[in-house]
């Protein structure tokens, strides 16, 4: 099987699973329903995932697909800071509108206890590559501080973003994630900026 077919099959399974998780809940979704919606086979499912629980870590994959989809829109923003705020708004809108609080909470809990791969921290993810690119641009333009490395700036941004999502989870979604980010992310990530 070619790499593209492998990616497409795995991607269809992941997309179908998260669509069903959102629509009917994680517990109520069966592997058979995921296979049916993804138009794959049980063999394909078990080739990529040893259980339904293994799909929890794939939410990072869904986030990365969103970033790939919206990256062309970054050209509309003049500053690197505004590009980061745009990415954040889009991610949090996707979460609030399409990922249940229960599933996001499960993702965080599985990442806390797993001994293996921690998908949210995988520096090879599209997310981190895109953040590094924006941080490089920000440093080169003099907008972002240069006393920190690009990797440090990227880590700082990602840490703030995860902290806001985690807080939203432990507060049981009692506030709008999108509105909170619009009002507070500029201040929370202002430490990326170079001093004037």
Q: How many DSSP E strands?
A: 0
CATH classification class of the largest domain = Mainly Alpha
Q: What is the radius of gyration?
A: 18 Å
Order of helices and strands: HHHHHHHHH
Low-confidence stretches: none
Characterize the largest beta sheet: strand count, sense, and whether it forms a barrel.
none
* Count of spatially separate domains: 2
Indicate the mean pLDDT.
86
Distance between the termini: 54 Å
Percent helix: 55-70%
CATH architecture of the largest domain: Orthogonal Bundle
Question: What features would you highlight for this structure?
Answer:
2 domains, 9 helices, single chain, mainly alpha
Describe this structure in words.
There is one protein chain. This protein is an all-alpha fold. The protein has helices at residues 3-24, 31-38, 42-48, 59-70, 80-98, 101-113, 126-140, 150-170, 177-188. It is elongated.
């Amino acid at each position: 099987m070619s790499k593209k077919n492998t990616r497409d099959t795995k991607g269809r399974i992941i997309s179908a699973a998260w669509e069903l998780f959102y629509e009917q809940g994680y517990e109520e979704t069966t592997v058979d329903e995921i296979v049916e919606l993804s138009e794959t086979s049980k063999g394909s499912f078990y080739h990529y995932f040893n259980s339904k629980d293994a799909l929890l870590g794939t939410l990072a994959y869904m986030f990365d697909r969103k970033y790939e989809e919206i990256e062309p829109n970054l050209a509309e923003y003049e500053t690197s800071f505004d590009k980061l705020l745009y990415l954040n708004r889009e991610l949090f809108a996707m979460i609030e509108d399409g990922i249940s609080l229960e599933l996001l909470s499960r993702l965080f809990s599985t990442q806390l206890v797993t001994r293996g791969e921690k998908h949210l921290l995988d520096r090879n993810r599209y997310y981190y590559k895109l953040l590094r690119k924006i941080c490089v641009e920000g440093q080169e333009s003099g907008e972002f501080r240069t006393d920190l490395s690009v990797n440090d700036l990227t880590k700082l941004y990602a840490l703030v973003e995860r902290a806001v999502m985690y807080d939203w989870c432990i507060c049981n979604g009692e506030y709008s994630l999108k509105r909170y980010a619009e009002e507070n992310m500029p201040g929370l990530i202002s430490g990326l900026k170079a001093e004037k």
